[in-house]
Amino acid sequence: MNLFRLAGDMTHLLSIVVLLLKIRTTKSCAGISLKTQELYALVFVTRYLDLFSRYVSFYNSVMKLVFLGTSFAIVWYMRYHKVVKQTYNKDEDTFKHYFLVLPSFVLALLIPHAFNTVEILWTFSIYLEAVAILPQLVLLQRSRNIDNLTGNYVFLLGGYRVLYLFNWVYRLFMEENHKMRWIRDFVEILNTAWMSGLVQTALYADFFYYYIKSWKNREKLKLTA
């Protein structure tokens, strides 16, 4: 465990805490994309199939359970909670998220770590996570006005992705035993630096710019169309 991995995990966890805090305290999911949350639930299900068959560490198992549990809890709140579901911006959350699933699966078949079900689905989850944020970013651009908790959630989620990129680079060059698994790391880095870079960076950079600008000027966060 290196500092980048730990910081990335904690930033990811904090982003989920912020989102759950928003939903539970305000009884509102306004500005949150259900489609992005469903994609994340699918990401965690396909990534953590080895939860009960392969033990890595107590920390690893707990984090997997936390991410699985919270992702399904968020989807449940947005779909079935009698108060929260009424605040969902369905008319603005129109990104065709199912079009992201098939290409991610095809890429996993073309560039898998190994040709078995668990590894193909693990690779699929890596590719899908890279684009899962797109419905959320599109929703924010359409809604224009963003509350502080939603803005903080997306900012922390973007920060987690950046920290994990540093984690993969660090492991690739600094951990001797990890160099023997360079193909798996290459898939992860390719997915994050190239796929995420081309698809997400422009939107994330735009979001980060306005987030920092609003924080600096103590203004309400607003995105341009």
UniProtKB/TrEMBL annotation:
Coarse class of the protein's main subcellular location: endoplasmic reticulum
UniProt-recorded Gene Ontology molecular function terms: ER retention sequence binding
Chain ranges passing through the membrane: 55-77, 98-115, 121-140, 152-173, 193-212
Location relative to the cell: Endoplasmic reticulum membrane
Cross-referenced InterPro entries: ER_ret_rcpt
One GO term (biological process): protein retention in ER lumen
GO CC annotation terms, alphabetical: endoplasmic reticulum membrane
Entry's family note: Belongs to the ERD2 family.
Protein name: ER lumen protein-retaining receptor
